[in-house]
Amino acid sequence: MRNQQAVQLLSELSQPGRRASTWPDCDVPMPASSSLLPRSCLAEHPPQLPELSEPDVVRHFSNLSTRNMSVDTHMYPLGSCTMKYNPKRHERWAALPGFAHVHPLQSDDTMQGLLQILFELQQMLGEISGLPAVSLQPAAGAQGELAALLVAAAYLADRGEKRHKVLVPDSAHGTNPASARMAGFSTVTVPSTSQGFVDLDQLHRQLDQDVAVVMITNPNTLGLFDPQIQTVSRMVHDVGGLIYLDGANMNAIVGVSRPGDFGADMMHFNPHKTFSGPHGGGGPGAGPICVTHALEPYLPSPVVEYDPSGYRLNFDRPHSVGRVRSFLGNVGVLLRAYAYLRTLGPEGLRRTTEQAVLNANYLLQAISPLLPVPHGPRCMHEFVATAKVIKQERGISAMDIAKRLLDYGFHAPTVYFPLTVPESIMIEPTETESKETLDAFVKVLAKVLQEPDDLLHEAPHSTEISRPDEVRAARNPTVRWQTTPTGNNG
Amino acid sequence: MDPQQLKFSPTHEWVHLSDVGGQRIATVGISAFAIALLTDLVHMELPAVGRAARPGESLGEIESVKAVSDVYSPVEGEVVEVNSGLVGNLEAMGDDPYGKSWIVKIRTTSDAGLDQLMDYATYQAQCATEG
Amino acid sequence: MDYLFDTSGDRQTMLRALGVERVEDLFDGIPSNCRLSSGLKLPAPLGELELQQHLESLAGKNYQAAQHACFLGGGSYDHFVPSVVDSIASRAEFYTSYTPYQPEASQGNLQVMFEYQSLICELTGMDVSNASLYDGASAVAEGVLMCLHAAPRGGTVLVPHTMHPEYREVLATYLKHMQATLRVIDTDMSLLTAAELQRHIGADTCCVVLQQPNFLGQIESLQELADVTHQAGASLVVSCDPLSLGILKRPGDLGADIVVAEGQCLGTPLSAGGPYLGILACRESFLRRMPGRIVGETVDRKGRRCWVLTLQTREQHIRREKATSNICTNQGLLALRAAVYLSVVGGQGLRDVADLATRKAHYAAQQIADCERFEVVGNAPFFKEFVVRDSAGQVDALLSHAASRGFLAGLPLGRWYPQFRDCVLVAVTEKRTRHEIDAWANCLANAPVSRLEVTNNA
User: Of A292, A319, C112, C227, which sees the most CB atoms within 10 A?
Assistant: First the structure.
């Protein structure tokens, strides 16, 4: 069944003289560009790209696509990534000519429909977060973190405060400390309690007049809602610091709890997770941020505003931290988020959250007899199991289990994150998996854990490749074709 | 070199002090324990010759596939030689950690940092708690 | 509910298995005073048909390049996208998958990224490329950060003001808290000369950032500027238009150390500005300072050639606060589009597209220059964009007149350059026909001039 040509590279498929595109003759009475431009800037020959026919290209990439697992084809319980179903209708709507062929620098009057959507999305995100001021500009969650920390820095500087520290829990995503550094802060890691919550004693010890921001993921990376969150907020606010909420886990609380209500001053959303944007093989995402009224003047420019004459992009924001991205942000991703929110409405969003949490708890309950879940017995939208015992007893690692699941047609959970749980296996089923699929997943996991050690160490067995040599890839990096595509084929 | 004769830092560097033409030269490497812990080394960044070194300051980095660690200077002085042969041959680093796999030589300019170093037995005891 | 599976029977069975009565009980871990007491105040739900009608009506309010002849550029261009690109990019195995954390389950995406990296290297003349960044603006900023990290004491970053103004703004935002000074060189409406660069460059210069062609469409003398940069011991970052490389020399052959670009023109429609594609490629010596994901070749346990994410120790998930960039994702789907575009169009096709755009732009410039009211500014060589000065000084009225007659006629420069408020930046792609160009020039030539405004501007 497999087409082995798919594993060839474009450079190897290339045959001199093949073409897949024909362009019209020039319809204006102008000489060739070589006589319009100075010779010194002109290339001697066309770019040395592969020479292919259209069927070559289509078959190549179509075959490559079948070498992926995807949400449309497999359960994808990748913890912290919220791999939920991506509604087909969104793809059709994002492709409407009135969205897909709008130029980002058109005047406001000529894109009122688009600006209305962005304005309403700002309002909806403000309502969901409880943080009313919104910037849609950041292109991804990490850029949202950076933008919000820049907002915090500008706000504090305006108040004449010289705070330079950002506190980050040890279980936080790596983008948190990296973003803090880019925003000019030094970072201090705060250990979590054995329950994975913020350690109040440790926090108390670290909190002082130098603390600008405390970055919190709540629900945290263990899938638990921190019951002391309001105490944490109060402690931080008492010393004049701000709370940043990493919104990666919002799928657990949309419609149930609002970050603004439990003390967050700033947060980002990951619409590609929470609001069903497709992940695109690693992107695009978006990272809109929501902040309190006090921080509003510092948001990146422009923001969308409304007055009786219509929707306007406001660039005239003297306190703004500036731009983090060109144009208006990842509008295509934001459009899908808008469509998702309008499709579900307030009740639907709450039911979605409930189902995500129900699915996760149902799975936790069924899995915990097989693999310990140290922070059980309940979770929010995801939970972290550990292979520590089976590693000690049989030498079977979290990675072995993850790889073997692939053989049974399940994408692997996230392994080795968070760093605070040894041999961690982080599972997030999302709300868009059925009970039958969850049951099937548990059954397979139980079976895998009974299988002979060697079978697991060498898994997967049914995929086209197995256990690539990552050491070799990193020691002698080969990151491009080794042959030029044209006239040099073997 | 016999590890029993070396001094060790809490961050897993070893030091050998010798007198070369009236100058005190510290040869620095990382311990067999650290090499084993890092597993599958893939890359190393060495300091430039002539660079100043201070105790506890990073001299360079050593990377495995999924981890990166600093190599800290145990002493104060100036880097006089680096083992550039290591970089292309990291897989062999564990074969002779206390000999061919030395990383830098530092001409020391003070005794700073020396009091933080421990003997082999004490270092082994520290490793036992970390393993 | 369209996206949920549960029947009430399922729900009951699952709750029973958990030993709880109501799904609300699963939220007991959230203190009651952190819970919403009432529902969110959001609009009521809409079914697929209703929402489609709503969105169609909103989309209908936007002017768009499929109906209005588009002469807008400035980093986003109405180029032709072959149908193969849409067809491949809409395969759900690509767009509903995620980051290739499990290489065995993502060889398709990984190979696409490797092909993309290779194509970008061929195109730009650089040694290595990453698997993409957010957009052209953040790619400039990340390129500059690479230079700053390579020169640990920070330094000055030199940028002519003919670099895309929004890219400059993003760069300034990223540099705000770095040990670096951003210095903008005012070149008026002209090219940056080697002598001018020489005047500004110094021992403290970390890097020079150039845009080729620059924001006004003009082709800079890259080689000379590269020489001045390197003589001063600084690095050269070039932000280029990838399509221009169908005819122009590659920045890598002219001395660039890092090449960045906005990749939208490679197979992605205007899309109101995003998602787009940030391209970043560099010389081998910068490989380990590159931000973002990189795919490398290796073999599996049976010796079969395959692809993995590699050099991950550069990235934030390992290096955390010491990482040179906080970037986590790449723009996988947009990089796929670029890879398919370059495969379909090929080297000769890219040359044809660039040649068509150049000739049509020069024709459009000729036509507009024939009108008494307008002047094409400067005499620098240009690719597909040029600047038109309106002697009546009524740019806004001119453009809205043209819009009402079916033309997105150009970008008013005054928003970014108050001193050029009587100027319009015009872009012409291979899609514009002679008929459209003639009609555009005719429309602008016949646009009314209001006497009141003339006096105001005089």
Answer: C112
